[in-house]
Amino acid sequence: LSLHDALPISKIFGKQIKKVITSSLNSLGIENAKVKAVDQGALDCVIKARTFAAAQRATGTAEEPVWEVF
Q1: Which of 4, 12, 20, 29 has its CA 20 to 30 A from that of 55?
Q2: Which residues are CB-neighbours of 67 under 8 A, at least 6 positions away?
Q3: Distance (Å, whole) CA 38 – CA 33
Q4: Distance of alpha carbon 40 from alpha carbon 61, whole angstroms
């Protein structure tokens, strides 16, 4: 997983944000991805939901959400 975040908030919460994104992608079976995280301190559940939405759009499965991963 390649994660790019260029915001000051990443100095404080960067490890947790990366952990949530990595975990979310892994639960969808995605192990290799290039991710750009642009956030200013969202809750983990919001980051998780945004990650799932972005991954499903990228893989063309947005019309078939995998509810089990939530």
Answers
A1: 12
A2: none
A3: 16
A4: 27
pLDDT digits (tens, 9 = 90+) for 1-60: 666 666 667 778 888 888 999 999 999 999 888 888 887 778 999 999 999 999 999 999
| DSSP assignment of the chain | -EEE--STTHHHHHHHHHHHHHHHHHHTT--S-EEE---SS--HHHHHHHHHHHHHHHHT-TTS--GGG-
Query: In sequence order, what E strands does the chain have?
Result: 2-4, 34-36
Q: Give Cα 14 distance to the centre of its chain.
A: 12
pTM: 0.81
